[in-house]
Design brief:
mainly beta, 1 helix, single chain, 73 residues, globular, binds zinc ion, 6 strands
């Protein structure tokens, strides 16, 4: 991927499975290089607070609302 897109990080709640916006914003280049170890997020649906790691995040392009797929190494 050559273009860098602004993305929102979403996760699927471990307790209820609902996908929610964590409020974190980054771009695809920074995300690919970053580590994102053990962030706490609270599910707005069921209130469960869990830790999420890089591989848990779903990237959603801010401009289009579309899910962005990154190669996972
Ligand atoms: Zn939940």
């Amino acid at each position: 991927m050559s273009a860098v897109a602004r993305v929102a990080l979403h996760v699927a709640c471990r307790a209820c499975g609902d996908v929610f916006d964590t409020g974190l914003r980054t771009d695809t280049g920074s995300f690919a290089r970053g580590t994102f170890a053990a962030n706490y997020h609270t599910c707005p649906r069921c209130g469960a607070t869990e830790t999420y790691r890089k591989q848990d995040y779903r990237l959603v392009e801010v401009r289009s609302g579309r899910t962005v797929e990154l190669p996972r190494r």
